[in-house]
Amino acid sequence: MEELLLLVFLIPIIGSFLLPLVAKFSETLRNVLSLVFVLSAFACSAALVPSAMAGNPASVHFWLPMGFSFGFSADGLAVFMALIASFVGAIIVIYSFTYIEHSDHKNVYYLMVTLFIGAMMGLVYSTNLIFIYIFWEISAISCWQLIGYYREPEHVLRADKAFLMTVFGALVMLAGFVLVYQQTGTFDITEMQGAELGNAAVLLILVGLLSKSATLPLHTWLPDAGVAPSPVTSLLHAAVLVKIGVYAFARFFIFSFNVDPMWHKVVPIVAACSAIVSAGAAMVEYDIKRIIAYSTISQIAFIFLGLSINNKIGVAGGLLYIMMHSLAKGGLFLCAGVVEHSTHTKDIRQLGGLIRTMPVTAVAFLICAFSIMGLPPLGGFFSKYMVVSGAVFADSPWIATVFIFGTLMTIIYLMRVFNAVFLGTSPAKIVDIHEGSRSMVASALSLAVFSLIGGLLIYYPSEFVQTVIAQIGGLLS
Amino acid sequence: MSEWMILLPILVPAAGAGVVFLLPKQLTAIQQAVAMLTAAAGLAITILLFGRELTFTKNWVGFGIYFDLRLYSFSAMILIVAAFAFLTVLYASVYMKDRGFSRSFYGFVLLATSFVSGAMLANNLVLMLFFWEGLLGILFALVYTGGREASQTAIKALVINGCADLCLILGVCITGWQAATFTMDQISLPLMNYWTTFGFVMMMIGAIGKAGSMPFHSWIPDAATDTNAAFMAFLPAALDKILGIYFLARMTLDLFVVIPGSKMSHTMMIIGCITIIFAVLMALIQKDYRKLLGYHAVSQVGYMILGIGTALTVGIVGGLFHMVNNALYKGCLFFTAGSVEMQTGTTDLKVLGGLGRKMPVTFAGFMVAALSITGVPPFNGFFSKELIFDAALQSNVIYFVIAAAGAFCTAASFLKLGHTVYFGEAPRNLRDTREAPWPILVPIVVLAFACALFGAYNVLPLQYLIEPILGERLHHTYSGLPHSWLLPAISAVILVLAVLNHRYGVKKSGKPVGAVDHIHHARPLRSLYDYAEAGSFDPYKGVSSMLESLAIILMGIDRLIDWVYTGFATGIATLVADGIGRVHIGKHWMYVLWTLAGAVVVIAIVFGIGG
């Protein structure tokens, strides 16, 4: 078991650097190996499930002096996150095969994508704040490389913006970690279960989380990151990057520390502002990827709401939200990628009527959009319902009302995109458009199908999440 | 009988839909057969289950959210749902033949049947939401595939219904919070505190929104013109009403304690009255068969809400009876519209005429349904309307007057419609019109027969279907003839007035289609009608443009925040860098000064701390 816990992140991280070498012999082998590395993370995580569920998580600890340590643990939360990230990541890698087939720097692409997912694995299994920080920054570097992948001056500028904003947040968070160390004398999370954390440390850490998870007021880098190749945006939004912040939130503020009850009121309010402002922006934008990016900001706010209101149904909803949002948002970006790949435009004013030429993509897009809106029988319904219900049960029906309003805006902006891109008549410019390649469309559709399965078989993920929450002990009210 | 049986009304149509979707597109005949068999099986199952009591509970999502179904007198209404599904599929076998999308029509009709049955059987509020909200996607798909130009209406329908459904979600959350359970038969909340009332209002919005009451109505007339008659008869005319009104009644009867004469009761009655009168005024002036019916589909919901809103036993019985009756006659009317459209190629009243002799069965079906909706005895609409009138009069005479005015306009618009389409001489191009084929006629005849049966023999629906729902609240039966003769007398006067008005209108305008032109063009009404026809009163438009303005403001906030990073922060950085750059000029004396200044600061700090 312990070996698996190390292999789960070492294989993709070390493997990623081998990919450029492999490419010297065969590009196909490089692509396949990249997929294999990501799948190995999924397989290892899956193998860690039984022990995590039994409440007997695999763990590795090497103690170093002065409270430093090198520690990894596969508890329910970590396994849950790792499974989602590696699963969606694997589908995105498959999609990439044809998507970036004809671009330059493919070695960098596969290296960074695999490294990115490896860093995510390291981050979720780490129990040491310093290691969390290191993996955090590795992900920032991969993200920086990938956003500016096409190397156009404008793209590089936006990559810099994303890098600077998330690294700024991370440094502030690091200061927060130092305060934690000052208070507890250790960097190991397992050592500080239930520790009361001062407000200054919470605030500093929050800045890091909000910047990584693109929440108001540290969110504006995310829409700009839409210049990246579509599988990359999908990866950023669905599988790894923005989910890091919410994961860390759950890890620190639900599973580890006790914080001032004030934060259970403040974070939902920040989230509410984020949900509404970004939903408004999504209603105005014309670039399909920017719209979906604003949608991510808005949906991440729902996750923060669920995780921050300090009751079980809310936290369970928040965790399920991470899963359902990953599937559906990943699917939306992959569909947007198919559209962009075929029509060479992202401006919804220049698109239209594509449901006739790209019916499968259109249906996949619609299913994913329905899941984001929270329509049953798709998975998004349950997570959204539980989060809103959690807010009500936490005696904050007004916050719940604001989020319900945010959901109405979600319906409006997603239907606006769907209408503009797939319905109506096609502009003269985009005749002779055909469906995307088989692997691309299949990847997008599979995420839509998993969104549906996630809803129909909600019993299983919900059971999983309930076990995860049961492991928290008495930290939740 | 095994408890698993209760799953069949949900699973069988869903499985049928799955098979239909999986069949290749070209195999229309097989799709049709599968749909027909499934719908028939669904109907047989609900007949078999009728009158039984079953419960089924399984763990589901956790946190008090169980997969909990309960079959009892109220949820037995799924019988009507299954019957409608069967008739619609039968009707569609001919009607949808050349329209394209027939596969998705069958599939989604079956899915809708499954979901509506699930919502009505659910005994857990969240499970009910699951089925209820699941209808949104189905509605979108049915409207979208319903007609060539229907995509905008599909979005409109989705957004409007989505808005009502979101209110329902909030209502369910708040009610579950107040009641500390989501299990419906354990909830009975008095409307005492602020949050309970808020929860009630939110759930009520969900219920009346589903039923298509104002202000959630404006997609229905649009759908009536943009989609097809089979869809209209199935969802907006029948299933949506049944589900919405079923839940409204369940809220008033079980989930909450609503006292007659209370604020909530009046709120519902006012919504009911507004819906009755404004929708029927719009119906009055329509010159399209389907659109006219579309507005009536809205208006009739007002009667049901008015009846249930009184919170009086007679009103609730009347409201529920009206819900059943409306499904029958409105379904029948939409089917006749489809029949006429299929045989003549149009639903435009200005070109239709004299079809009574060409299409005698359709005509007979229309007559029975029209007499029912107008409230002529011995048809079913008469009895339910009288019960609602009774309850309205007991609550406040104003409600009664508005309901009566609605009845007048209903009668006037059906006189116009019937006279225009079926009487007189057929125009030249319609001379060769023939009766529709039997799969079209069977649903019409069945529904018309049911209208007559449920009127003349109203013991059947009242004592077997509706009155058991009220349980102990019921002191005596409402079946048989009306108990007082005052209300029927007033109704008779209204009908006579409507006939006189019709004769006057026809004489004045010279043609039956212009029978209400004198009302349409009357001074104060004319400009109002112009505005309404232009969509100025459409709440969807108003709210959409308000939201768009809000979105622009929010976008401004977003851009402002972005400017803090891209403009302000970089500006400050540039400024600071410039400033520092300017003092580093490479001169010796400057660095000496810097060193001295640094030394002063260090000394100051050291002494400062020391002091």
Describe the structure.
In chain A, a hairpin with a 5-residue loop joins strand 1 and strand 2. Chain A folds into two domains: 260 residues, no CATH class; 217 residues, no CATH class. Chain A is mainly α and 477 residues long. Chain A contains 19 helices and two strands. Chain B has 611 residues and is mainly alpha-helical. Chain B has 23 helices and four strands. At the A-B interface, helix 11, helix 13, helix 16, helix 17 and helix 19 of A face strand 1, helix 5, helix 6 and helix 22 of B.
Interface with most residues:
A-B, 52 and 46 residues
Separation, N- and C-terminal Cα atoms of chain A:
33 Å
Strand-residue proportion of chain B: under 5%
Rg over alpha carbons of chain B: 30 Å
Order of helices and strands of chain A: HHEEHHHHHHHHHHHHHHHHH
Task: Describe what is shown at a glance.
The complex is a heterodimer of chains A (477) and B (611). With 477 residues, chain A is an all-alpha fold. Chain A contains 19 helices and two strands.
Helix-strand layout with pairing:
The complex is a heterodimer of chains A (477) and B (611).
Chain A: H1 2-23, H2 27-53, E1 59-63, E2 69-73, H3 76-99, H4 106-125, H5 129-147, H6 153-184, H7 199-212, H8 221-224, H9 230-239, H10 241-254, H11 263-284, H12 288-308, H13 312-343, H14 354-357, H15 359-373, H16 379-393, H17 397-422, H18 438-456, H19 459-470
Chain B: H1 8-22, H2 28-49, E1 54-62, E2 65-71, H3 78-95, H4 102-121, H5 125-144, H6 151-179, E3 189-190, H7 194-211, H8 219-226, H9 229-255, E4 256-257, H10 263-284, H11 289-309, H12 313-344, H13 355-358, H14 360-374, H15 380-395, H16 397-422, H17 438-456, H18 459-470, H19 486-509, H20 517-520, H21 523-533, H22 539-583, H23 588-610
Parallel strand pairs in B: 3-4
Antiparallel strand pairs in B: 1-2
